[in-house]
UniProtKB/TrEMBL annotation:
It holds the Pfam family DUF620. InterPro entries: DUF620. PANTHER family: LIPASE, LIPASE-LIKE PROTEIN. It comes from the Eukaryota. It comes from Zea mays (Maize). This is Lipase-like protein.
Length: 478
């Protein structure tokens, strides 16, 4: 690490110790936000740090602007929110790249925004399948009276912890910080047997940055800014919440679960605790490396707790691939199946989300071996009899990330940094809320939309007089 990086990170530690935390970055006035952004630019040497994130749409930026844009969208915040809630049926892949007319260009821009919403909704802050507490010790390695699949999994996890720095060192860490870059893109869309590929995926990839703070036990906070949209999510140990421009601040259904992004080589102890109840189901070569495969399935009680109304989580399975040679986690796959029943008693629509992540570039940081790069491919597949009229659809998305800074036991970080926003409503939102609204069955779409219709109607009335964002999109759905 060069002198510039060392100076930047030392200054960052001092700022955290003086109280500049994720919790204080919320709900700032425009003047305070500008001052903090300037301070971060000075610390980062040219603006490498993320600007403070607001609890809603940036009043200075339109949907097509970058995070630091200065063009204000005409028509007020109410019209901005209404535009975010309206999705076209097909992603931007179907919009012609060389469209010259104004209408075609506007359609392409709208499709691009829809793509970005889908990317952030599915890939921004996904959670692990089950609750886990890294403070609890792993099961003692035992062969007697233990199925071979279970004892093999315990042995593989012991080797993984040893390769990652050792359980004693990992258990002594009080908190951690990571900062990195991401690039997201929708690469392929299939409907009715017709496949549309994004032939300019590299040029159309949305760049972004993220920061992740974690604190034992079970507290975490993440900010992600991509393509002019900002998503932040967190957990105070009792409640998992997320804020997106289109849903506002809301809590997640079901038990407290870790952030999947942390399992991708950033938090070895939580990853090992996650797979403590897994089974070894065999071996496979991944990216030229021989790996053991551990399988973990969410139990029926957890699935019921995560379900809501007409949306039922049928299964969530996680596979971890651990290298024979290094013992490290080199690949993650999880499959998540949701059924949305028609409110009129018709056939259901099924959504299957599959995320496959390669974890790479492991390096030691203060004795802990951390992955510094990786790639994910996401497939979102809709099927079922009720979907025949709309056509079965499959959308493929990709993400690449790199880690720039990692630190452990940052001074000044406390539980106050993980307090949820004040506008998190009493209700909670199921994962089905992030599915493409324009591609649901008409009957099933009523599952979530009525709650938004009331909010949008209120925004329309208050559009001319200004909108107080803090209460504009609180979800009170039961």
């Amino acid at each position: 690490m060069d002198a510039k990086r060392q100076g930047f990170f030392s200054a960052l530690r001092e700022e955290v110790a003086r109280g500049l935390s994720p919790g204080r970055a919320r709900r700032r006035s425009a003047s305070n936000a500008a001052e903090v952004a300037a301070a971060l630019r000075r610390l980062g040497g040219g603006g490498e740090a993320l600007a403070p994130l607001m609890e809603g749409p940036d009043p200075e930026a339109g949907p097509g602007a970058t995070c630091g844009g200065s063009a204000r969208k005409e028509g007020g915040w109410g019209r901005w929110v209404r535009g975010q809630l309206q999705l076209t049926r097909a992603p931007a892949l179907e919009a012609g790249a060389g469209a010259g007319s104004g209408a075609a260009a506007a359609a392409a821009a709208a499709g691009r925004r829809n793509d970005l919403r889908l990317l952030l909704g599915v890939m921004g802050a996904p959670l692990a399948p089950v609750h886990v507490c890294a403070a609890e010790p792993l099961p003692h390695l035992s062969i007697k009276d233990t199925p071979i699949e279970t004892s093999s999994a315990q042995y593989i996890l012991q080797q993984y912890l040893a390769a990652s720095g050792g359980q004693r060192l990992l258990s002594s860490i009080r908190n951690s910080y990571a900062m990195g870059k991401v690039r997201m893109v929708a690469t392929e869309f299939e409907a009715g047997g017709r496949v549309v590929r994004n032939r300019m995926a590299a040029q159309r990839a949305e760049p972004g940055r993220f920061v992740l703070w974690q604190m034992a036990p079970e507290m975490w906070y993440m900010e992600l800014a991509v393509g002019g949209s900002k998503v932040h999510a967190g957990c105070n140990g009792k409640l998992v919440w997320r804020h997106t421009p289109w849903l506002g601040a809301h809590s997640a259904k079901g038990p407290v679960r870790p952030l999947r992004r942390a399992l991708q080589g950033l938090d070895p102890l939580t990853a090992a605790s996650m797979f403590a109840g897994a089974r070894c189901i065999g071996e496979r070569k991944v990216n030229g490396e021989d790996c053991f495969i551990l399988k973990l399935s969410a139990d029926p009680e957890t699935l019921r707790a995560r379900s809501e109304g007409l949306a039922e989580i049928i299964r969530h399975v996680l596979f971890g691939y651990f290298s024979h040679k290094s013992g490290l986690l080199v690949h993650l796959e999880d499959s998540h199946l949701t059924r949305i029943q028609s409110a009129t008693g018709g056939d259901a629509v099924y959504w299957e989300t599959t995320i496959s992540s390669s974890v790479e570039d492991y390096r030691a940081v203060d004795g802990v071996v951390v992955a510094h790069a990786g790639r994910s491919a996401v497939t979102l597949f809709r099927f079922g009899e009720a979907a025949v009229g709309l056509g079965h659809t499959k959308t493929r998305m990709e993400e690449a990330w790199t880690i720039e800074e990692v630190a452990f036991d940052v001074p000044g970080l406390s539980a106050d940094c993980f307090i949820p926003p004040t506008d998190v409503g009493p209700g909670s939102v199921s994962e089905a809320a992030e599915l493409p609204r324009g591609e649901r069955s008409k009957a099933a779409a009523g599952l979530v939309l009525p709650c938004h219709r009331a909010r949008v109607a209120a925004l329309e009335k208050a559009d001319d007089g200004g909108v107080a964002w803090s209460g504009a999109l609180q979800l009170g759905c039961k």
